[in-house]
């Protein structure tokens, strides 16, 4: 399975997030990051159920850690 989210998946993740970072609430710009909730490097799939839209700052802080919900 691909590591990168497809353009369609990215559009859907952005729409589901209301165009806001799901961590800090900042308005997403065109360079937002489609992130794996459960890190891909730790076995997380590239699916909408495991995706979230984050601003670059929040995603880079998160790194390869898993988000706990």
From TrEMBL:
Entries under InterPro entries matching the protein: HNH, HNH_nuc
Domain HNH nuclease: 9-60
Molecular function via GO: endonuclease activity; nucleic acid binding; zinc ion binding
SMART domains found in the cross-reference section: HNHc
Protein name (database record): HNH nuclease domain-containing protein
Species of provenance: Sulfitobacter sediminilitoris
